[in-house]
Amino acid sequence: MPKQKTHKGTSKRIRVTGSGKLLREKAGKRHLLEKKSSKLTRRLSGTVEVAKNDVPRLKKLLGL
């Protein structure tokens, strides 16, 4: 059997921590920032943990 290839698009978006958690950036902070409030852009900054339901699918894409 061939090896499972890493999905490169997913690997660029998802970071794996030392303990095995998956982290992602929040969506909506790439463009059109001028019309978004400072309060909203601050809220969208930083990383968050991936939702529990999505973890098995993303781990498969990452080859974990």
Describe the protein in words.
One of its GO terms (cellular component) is cytosolic large ribosomal subunit. It holds the Pfam family Ribosomal_L35p. This is Large ribosomal subunit protein bL35. GO terms for molecular function: structural constituent of ribosome. The protein is of the alpha+beta class. It has a single domain, classed as Factor Xa Inhibitor (Irregular). The chain is 33% helix and 16% strand. It is built from 3 helices and 3 strands. Strands 1-2-3 form a 3-stranded antiparallel sheet. The chain is elongated.
Question: What is the compact description of this entry?
Answer:
About 35% of the residues lie in helices and about 15% in strands.
Task: Name the features.
64 residues; 3 helices; elongated; Ribosomal_bL35; ribosomal protein; structural constituent of ribosome; Ribosomal_bL35_sf
**Per DSSP, what share of the residues sits in E-state strands of 2 or more residues?**
15-25%
Which structural category fits the helices and strands?
alpha+beta
Q: How are the strands ordered across the major sheet?
A: 1-2-3
Number of domains: 1
CATH topology: Factor Xa Inhibitor
Give a quick account of the main beta sheet: strands, pairing sense, barrel closure: 3 strands, antiparallel
In the CATH hierarchy, what is the class? Few Secondary Structures
In the predicted model, the low-confidence regions spanning at least 5 consecutive residues are none
Shape: elongated
Q: Summarize the helix and strand pattern as letters.
A: HEEHEH
* Number of helices in the DSSP assignment: 3
**Span of the ends, CA to CA:** 17 Å
Mean pLDDT equals 94
Q: Report the C-alpha radius of gyration, rounded.
A: 15 Å
InterPro entries: Ribosomal_bL35 (IPR001706), Ribosomal_bL35-like (IPR021137), Ribosomal_bL35_sf (IPR037229)
GO biological process, one term: translation
Keywords: Ribonucleoprotein, Ribosomal protein
Family: Belongs to the bacterial ribosomal protein bL35 family.
